[in-house]
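re the bet — no i am not wrong, look at it urself. input seq straight from the record:
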Amino acid sequence: MPASPDWFEPARFGLFVHFGLYSLAARHEWVRSREAIPDAEYDRYLERFDPDQFDAPALAKTAREAGMRYAVLTAKHHDGFCLFGSKLTGYHSVRVAGRDLVAEFADAMRAEGIRVGLYYSLLDWHHPDFEIDRYHPLHADPAALEQPRDMARYREFLRGQVTELLTEYGDIDLLFFDFTYPAKGPEDWGAEELLALVRELRPGILVNDRLGIPGDYVTPEQYQPDRPLERDGVPVRWEACHTLNGSWGYDRDNHEYKDPALLVRMLVQSVSCGGNLLLNVGPTGRGALDPRARETLAAIAGWMHLHDRSVHDAGPAKFTPPSNVLYTQAGDRLYAHLLSWPLKHLHLPGLAGRVRYAQLLHDGSEVRFHQLDGENHEHNNLAPPSQDAGTLTLTLPIIAPDVLLPVLELFLEADA
């Protein structure tokens, strides 16, 4: 599957994996910066880095079963530790653990038919030429501040490692750079030249927007857009990236996990607004998914097994949903995702005469519908008042389906 941008929107759902030395600390992926940990203290994790539970084929199978069509691994995070055998540094998993986890990840994902993405941090707190700023763990170390640093040499290092990732690991479909901030900008990364290099090495690859210059898609993080995203009035590709519990890397004592039903609603809301959802897991220090992550992905897998066609290959609908309903649409099929379950009747404005059949998606059971007369009149004891003209009224069972998010599949008339 050569890199091509055409796969991104139909994919809709992806897996993000944050794994590295910080996973052993189990106190958030920014632990080194937050606690101002010096080199010698942080590097003790090198002696203990043994990802014996990192099972890329099992992870790929889990992602596929959850309905994820692409996956992104942290090839290098801000601490500079690489999960691949870089020839430009010895600070990597091959030297300390004898394993190239990027190669394992890429091979396993491709075997499951999942597109491969790599995350690469523009920051590097380990590299001797990366200039110290307020995020750097050594920002209060006088001796470190006196050492000469050369960002020009660091830019060469960046280009060299990106070249390794894009030439030694087969077809890479997506590159997630992270990140530009007030202390470091496009000129520090040589962003234009770096992006040109990426395009030369992998034509058609998708690159995100975090070089500080426009990319192929934008990456809202830890918030959920409620409308299609635009730049200068032009719609853009986008991907909401979210954690399970607020931390990207393994955080043993953070138990604020999002409910699977909430995550499914977030996925559908992304699709309804023309975007994707990239959902993160942070494997433990040994490389395994923790029990809560496994349970969450299994619950999502159960929902996706029955409802995936309301997500994959779907997008925003041309109809406006009523409150507590999210629409997605794929061709002549309109999907109504019910955020709350109504009593008996669901009224869908503007759809009268436009639907030829309706069913609950999880079991294919027919849902009957009709159009009220559209005339305003007072209620009576046994009949609901009329709705606005053009409203389609569906009659639902009293008991909601036992699924994370009920979905109605409406088959539209040819001229709808």
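see?? The CA atoms of residues 55 and 113 lie 17 Å apart. told u. also DSSP finds 14 helices and 17 strands in the chain. so pay up
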